[in-house]
Amino acid sequence: MNANPPTPIPTVLTTDVATAADALRAGKLVAFATETVYGLGANALDASAVARIFAAKERPLFDPLIVHLAAREAIGEVCNAVPPLAERLIEAFWPGPLTLVLPRRDVVPDLVTAGLPDVAVRVPDHALARALIARAGVPVAAPSANLFGRVSPTTAAHVMEQLDGRIEVVLDGGPCRVGVESTIVAFDAGERPRVLRYGGLAVEALEAVCGTLALPQAAARHPGAAPGAQPAPGMLEQHYAPRKPLTLLDTLAEADAAQRAAIARGTLGVLAFRGLPPGCVAPVIETLSAAGSLEEAATRLFAALRRLDAAAVAGIVAERVPDSGLGRAVNDRLRRAAHA
Ligand code: TXA
Ligand code: MG
């Protein structure tokens, strides 16, 4: 983490692609809407611009960035080789909420990949994002546009809350449709592709195209890893965290008497999937999807966490959602939010 945040700079909030693209070409930082969450972009081929992303986010340098392309055809600009299974996934899901980790070309600065031989790439399914990247004429490195470890932004206003004064431009493309970050898949020669992070593309949809995938382990650190050892990239446990303590239950029905009392007093806020169990009263509650849609739950998750964080409560009690489809990404983010 940076001890000293950068001195404040004016941040322009705009819907004008040309303004944002010019800024990217000039080595400046541009937050932009994608279908998943807002990204904090810089020219991926300009190491000093990329370095400013880490400073603005206070992100540790060992956490590599995703490179965003305007079209599938641009993949050769940053990747050396695309295995046949990756080709099939690209064909099926790009543009879309799928990031592939593939061998990088030398033009990609070490800072983008944290020195790894592979680079993470995706083509966002958002017309404004693709127009921005196409007009800038360069691949765009972009992590989520939040301070490191905090909840990802799904509106331009969320970006401004944390990054106003730290970046030059925010390109407002409206609220994000998917609401959780992309699903990340890595390829190791001779092995099944591995899901590194659950996200906005369901594993079931991926497996229908490329067969069984290796799935993330519940624990971020390898079982025998020394205390304090560096977790694998993308596997940091304390992530997506509100500032208030979050307790994660399988269902709200299992809240104990003390929790129920605090919920009823409004001392604890509730993050419910479909609503409250019978007999439970909660003045401060966010319901992810009364209809029980996991897509809707994903779309609403981060904004709901932010509202609960801002509410006059001491903590948050959340419940898991069904662990299938986008529910796996929702549960993954809730688990990490609870870890803090
Ligand atoms: O939907 C998304 O993926 C959003 C939007 C902006 O595209 N981006 C995003 O970026 O979530 P970020 O930086 O918050 O998360 C990217 C994750 C990181 O945790 C990083 O460790 C992992 O991707 N990653 C990036 N490059 C990698 C690499 N070469 N190998 C393994 N993991 C990598
Ligand atoms: Mg992030």
Written overview of the protein:
This protein has about 350 residues and is of the alpha/beta class. The protein folds into two domains: about 10-210, DHBP synthase (Alpha-Beta Complex); about 245-340, 3-Layer(aba) Sandwich (Rossmann fold), CATH 3.40.50. Helices cover about 30% and strands about 15% of the residues. The protein has helices at about 15-25, 45-55, 85-95, 110-115, 125-135, 155-165, 205-210, 255-265, 295-310, 325-340, and strands at about 10-15, 30, 40-45, 65-70, 100-105, 120, 140, 170, 185, 195, 245-250, 270, 285, 315-320. The strands form two sheets. Strands 1-8-2-3-7-4-6-5-9-10 form a ten-stranded mixed sheet, with helices on both faces. Strand 2 and strand 3 (about 40-45) form a beta hairpin. Helix 1 (about 15-25) crosses helix 5 (about 125-135). The longest helix is centred in the C-terminal third of the chain and has 17 residues, at about 295-310. The two termini are about 15 Å apart. Residues about 220-230 have low confidence and may be disordered. Bound molecules: threonylcarbamoyladenylate and magnesium ion (MG).
Short descriptors:
ten-stranded mixed beta sheet, four-stranded parallel beta sheet, binds magnesium ion, DHBP synthase, 340 residues, Rossmann fold, globular, 2 domains, alpha/beta
